[in-house]
Amino acid sequence: MVRSLAPAVITGAAQAYPATREQDQLWAGFFSRHYGGSRLAQRIFSSAGVRTRHGVVNPLDEDISGWGTGARMERYAAEAMPLGKEAVGTALDRAGLDPCDVGLFAVASCTGYTTPGIDIMLARDLGMSSDVQRLMVGHMGCYAAIPGLGAVSDFVAARSRPAVLLCLELTSLHVQPATEGMDQVVAHALFSDAAAAVVVQAGATAGLEVVDVIARTDASTADHMTWDVTDLGFRMGLSPRVPDVLAEHVLSVIETLLARHGLRPADVEGWAVHPGGPRILDVVGERLALPAGALDASRETLSRHGNCSSATVLLVLEELQRSRPARPGGYVVAMAFGPGLTLYATLLRATG
Prior knowledge:
By secondary structure, the chain is of the alpha+beta class. The protein is built from ten helices and 13 strands. Strands 5-4-6-7-1-8-13-12-11 form a nine-stranded mixed beta sheet, sandwiched between helices. A two-stranded antiparallel sheet has the order 2-3. The protein has a two-stranded antiparallel ribbon with strand order 9-10. It folds into two domains: 8-202, 3-Layer(aba) Sandwich (Peroxisomal Thiolase, Chain A, domain 1), CATH 3.40.47.10; 207-351, Peroxisomal Thiolase, Chain A, domain 1 (3-Layer(aba) Sandwich), CATH 3.40.47.10. The mean pLDDT is 95. Helix 9 (296-305) packs across helix 10.
């Protein structure tokens, strides 16, 4: 007899942020000097679509651009713990679960490493069982939340035990020395820190069911987006052609995902799109022919929080559920992009 798997449903979500900074103040107080008053750099900062963002490091008080990678990793280990505890603890509370109920704890991060990992330390401090299974999703970048969600959902459906996914990124630890490369300016204008957690349970009657996940990687453009470990922290490489590559793939990927379930883009009630930048959102909206306002949650998240790497799409999903929740039975698509060049998307269905 073939066992029917219970659907995996997101039943709780929460976020945690370090201190908030004004984008204009970051430019005037640090980055203007850092980039020698470059007018091009100033235009990039002012057009990034970011109004405020968050950081465990405030460059107005502390210039770490010359720090070695070891010092940055020590800081990561210290700063990650309270943010992770807050996000996971609150998400479990909202799902009505105790930490000892968790069967799998997955953590996605590309901005710091330590062993024993923060997954072990957080599981211990939160009171998870000593036999909780753990999964670390490392260095995948901005799209990591989607494969992470796919992995925990498969576990939940197969084992009928709850799981937690935490995406925790501290990009402010990777401010680079001044350079003439505009890709570094773009990264410094966009990126931000955040922790976002979701709880997934089997067969829950209220939440967002994880219906399907799809991925596509165009390895011919692998050099368009990079995240290199250097002696001075992690350094981003970012080609201005990224939106063009995304434009080539996003429609066919989404149509394929939806067609598996007899759906078309017009059948989707909500879109949670990773705001890699304003141009990325413009490309997605144009290629999918989305109606006006469909990406408001993405633009609002970018404006208020910046690009928080893997945590961002979960922040957008929460903003979408707050501002424009899907009706019971309605579909939502969440998608994110990152190194590879890779596009990941998931189809969600509102229950309850």
